[in-house]
Amino acid sequence: MTTREATRYLPRATERDGALHRRSPAEWAWVVAFGAIQWPWLLRSLSGGPPAAREALLARLDLPPDALPHLGSWKADAGLLGLITDHIMTERPARVVEFGAGASTLIAARALQLAGGGSLLSFDQHGDFVEQTRAIALGWHRSFCLTLTRWRGTREQPALMMALDRGGSCTGVAYRLPPGDRLKQIEMLLRRETDGIPATNVARWISVNTTSGPIRALAFVASREGPAYAGPQPHPVAAQIIARAAGHWGSAATYLQRTVAKLDEHGIRDRNLWELQKLVADEIRRLTPSG
């Protein structure tokens, strides 16, 4: 069993920048000295590790060659993922808890499966926010228009994922980030929301209307030239795909249900998503043996 939850175990930006977290000169000396020693290993980790190590890891876990995303840019490298695999295969834990879901989630889940089972609980380290407001994006609409072969789908049974696609309008929620290191907060969002080289779900500044007037917001929209762009899908076709697809982060149907529920919490009823949710539920009932 694998679950993926949200956590705020990271300190808030205002706390990180406050007096409680200010370093003394002696502490800064330790940081500089440690950085001077560690930088060669840090640069190596940013590359994601040797290709041979990655290939050996995937072969060991009987995973396809393209099962992992690019491992550079601060993601877990092949060496660390190998150590995680070693530990799970040796200790055979009943439960694994990780803070920050990503490539390690796939590896840990597969290692647990090969080791005889167990549960994996993954916490996402979402950025904090200080204000939220309902917003309308004109010229964009929610659409299950991206093909997904990892996370909530597989190469054998791809899933569909939502993104903003051109046309229509979309009512949602805009969040204002707290004071502090805004670039670091946006960097965290980019790492969490974009995947693939080149990415199909891309970040873009768009104009949205709020009760206080128009503002600029960072959104993730579908690139129609991207390799994972599936285009608009008729609801019956999309329902058949979503009802069947699942991966190590759970099922595509759960992703749809949680999106509808979250919008409902904010008083937003997306007619298309409600219709699609009904069709998916009907398809799952049809696929489930009675009695």
Give a summary of the structure in a few sentences.
This protein is an alpha/beta fold and about 290 residues long. It contains 9 helices and 9 strands. A hairpin with a 2-residue loop joins strand 6 and strand 7.
Name some characteristics of this structure.
single chain, 291 residues, alpha/beta, 2 domains, 3-stranded parallel beta sheet, two-stranded antiparallel sheet, 9 strands, 27% strand, disordered N terminus
Task: Work out the strand percent.
Answer: 25-35%
Under the CATH scheme, which architecture of the largest domain would be assigned? Roll
Judging from the principal axes of the Cα atoms, what is the shape? globular
The parts where pLDDT drops under 50 for at least 5 residues are: 1-21
- Structure classification: alpha/beta
If you had to describe this structure to a student in words, what would you say it looks like?
The structure is a single chain. The protein has 291 residues and is of the alpha/beta class. Helix content is 40%, strand content 27%. It contains nine helices and nine strands. The chain has helices at residues 13-16, 25-46, 51-60, 78-91, 103-114, 182-193, 235-244, 252-265, 271-287, and strands spanning 2-7, 95-99, 119-125, 131-148, 159-176, 201-210, 213-222, 246-247, 250-251. The strands form four sheets. The chain has a three-stranded parallel beta sheet with strand order 1-3-2, covered by helices on one side. A hairpin with a 2-residue loop joins strand 8 and strand 9. Helix 4 (78-91) runs parallel beside helix 5 (103-114), helix 7 crosses helix 9 (271-287) and helix 8 (252-265) runs antiparallel to helix 9 (271-287). It starts with a strand and ends with a helix.
